[in-house]
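Support reply, case 0932

Customer input (verbatim):
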Amino acid sequence: MTRTRLHVPFALRCGAFLIDYILLISLVVLGTLFARMLGGGARSAGSTAETTAILLAVVIAFLNLGVLPGLTGLTLGKWAAGLRIQRVDTGNPGIGRALLRHFVGYPLSLITFGLGFLVAAVTVQGRGLHDMIAGTVVVRESSL
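Our regenerated output:
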């Protein structure tokens, strides 16, 4: 099985992005619902459930957006969409580069009113601002 670099449609990248963030938001929502079900008499337990859900979401975000793509080039969303993050020179990004991409590059892409993400739709290589900052590219994989 040979891995080949193919151009990634912008909509597919957005789908992978949504899968990753739906996972994180779901953890917080479920924790909040659980806390509300504990009711008024269990305020401290409800507060603990919400805090636990938020901390779990932060840990999952670090693992899914930093460690996992750093080692494998995949987040859960990228895996589900058949995409992979790699260095421009075709290696795995590494944890530092993945953390830079997601926790520095993504906020900068958002601060520019989303233009940092839209750059991926109009550039030849399909790289967003966060990819340019981290020296990465998102590729679609196929087996030949």
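We compared this against your earlier run and they match. Two observations from our side: The beta strands are 83-87, 136-140. Helices lie at 10-37, 43-72, 76-81, 95-111, 115-122, 129-134. Please reopen the case if you see a mismatch on your end.
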